[in-house]
């Protein structure tokens, strides 16, 4: 195994093989215990129709139910956060059916994104790039979830897992902004495996991943943007040998995204040197 590969696996806490039932129990247990320790009223999570939020949502719902069994009045809130009309809305609805949340709502971020873009362009006298606007969409989704959480005493679930964390493939303080990360340490195929194990529909656990943040290229696949296959990322994280070009690309992403896996650097930090 490559030297950096071993370090990354340890830093991200990835297991080469997992027992799906054990991992589900460990993660529902974590969410339940955290809820109780934080004295919170429940969890909120955006449900996109992708596999990560399908799994994160179901785990959140199971934790809310388990805390209720212990006498607390906790609830899981699923929130649809479309940007105007979402092309794969049918997948989002299938995810909601599977998650079976205590409460559901829709908060359309489209009007807020439009207003934000308009003021940006006025202030800077420049058109906001489609890429930058995509990150603004992810941050407005974060704001919507925190607005709901703040009023109702909830915590925000984040869906970051090892296959996104290793490349920094998330928006800093956007989908990267959350209170708890129940999928931490999982590879993408392990996320799929747990979703299947919980009885999720194949159309969701087998779905092609997309950040779906671009107006100009809707549904662009993560693999196309990254120039990497999740199978290679997962193999690398599970300690297997991958082609040198893929390993080097993963390590390049890892090194340039170190700041995304840390608190903001202050004068006493040296990790960035
Ligand atoms: N060395 C450094 N130390 C401290 N901070 C540093 C830094 N370099 C940049 N930064 C800061 O980080 C910012 C760039 O980070 P960020 O704003 O995240 O932007 P960036 O990493 O450039 O873009 C986010 C990427 O994540 C992908 N994404 C986003 C959301 C969801 C998903 C998904 O899979 O669903 C994927 C998206 O497609 C895109 O490729 C810079 O503007 C700067 O403020
Ligand atoms: N349209 C949306 N509606 C609600 N939540 C969203 C939407 N788009 C993104 N999110 C939130 O942002 C998170 C990050 O998006 P990401 O694309 O990584 O996950 P996913 O869509 O659940 O799965 P996949 O990565 O396989 O597409 C999602 O898990 C979800 O919580
Ligand atoms: Mg997605």
UniProtKB/TrEMBL annotation:
It catalyses: deamido-NAD(+) + NH4(+) + ATP = AMP + diphosphate + NAD(+) + H(+). InterPro entries: NAD/GMP_synthase, NAD_synthase, NH(3)-dep_NAD(+)_synth, Rossmann-like_a/b/a_fold. GO terms for cellular component: cytoplasm. Residues 24-264 form the NAD/GMP synthase domain. One of its GO terms (molecular function) is glutaminase activity. Signal peptide: none annotated. One of its GO terms (biological process) is NAD+ biosynthetic process. Pathway: Cofactor biosynthesis; NAD(+) biosynthesis; NAD(+) from deamido-NAD(+) (ammonia route): step 1/1. Its EC number is 6.3.1.5. Keywords: ATP-binding, Ligase, Magnesium, Metal-binding, NAD, Nucleotide-binding. Deamido-NAD(+) binds at residues 139, 172, 179, 259-260. Homodimer. Belongs to the NAD synthetase family. Catalyzes the ATP-dependent amidation of deamido-NAD to form NAD. Uses ammonia as a nitrogen source. This is NH(3)-dependent NAD(+) synthetase. It comes from Flaviflexus salsibiostraticola. The lineage of its organism: Bacteria, Bacillati, Actinomycetota, Actinomycetes, Actinomycetales.
């Amino acid at each position: 195994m490559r030297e950096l590969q071993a370090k990354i696996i340890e830093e991200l806490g990835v297991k080469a093989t997992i027992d799906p039932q054990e991992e589900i129990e460990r993660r529902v247990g974590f969410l339940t215990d955290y809820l109780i320790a934080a004295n919170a009223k429940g969890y909120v999570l955006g449900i996109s129709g992708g596999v990560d939020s399908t799994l994160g949502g179901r785990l959140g719902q199971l934790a809310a139910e388990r805390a209720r069994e212990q006498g607390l009045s906790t609830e899981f809130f699923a929130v649809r956060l479309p940007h105007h009309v979402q092309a794969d809305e049918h997948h989002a609805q299938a995810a909601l059916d599977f998650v079976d949340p205590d409460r559901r709502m829709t908060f359309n971020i489209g009007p807020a994104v439009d207003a934000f873009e308009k003021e940006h362009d006025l202030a800077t006298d420049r058109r906001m790039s489609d890429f930058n606007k995509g990150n603004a969409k992810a941050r407005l989704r974060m704001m919507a979830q925190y607005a709901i959480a703040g009023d109702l005493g909830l915590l925000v679930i984040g869906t970051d897992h090892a296959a996104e964390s290793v490349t920094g493939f998330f928006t800093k303080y956007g989908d990267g902004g959350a209170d708890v990360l129940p999928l931490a340490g999982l590879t993408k195929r392990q996320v799929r495996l747990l979703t299947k194990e919980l009885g999720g529909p194949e159309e969701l656990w087998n779905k092609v991943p997309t950040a779906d943040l671009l107006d100009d290229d809707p549904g662009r696949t993560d693999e196309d943007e990254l120039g990497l296959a999740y199978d290679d990322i997962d193999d690398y994280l599970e300690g297997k040998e991958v082609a040198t070009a893929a390993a080097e690309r993963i390590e390049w992403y890892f090194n340039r995204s170190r700041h995304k896996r840390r608190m903001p650097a202050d004068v006493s930090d040296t990790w960035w040197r």
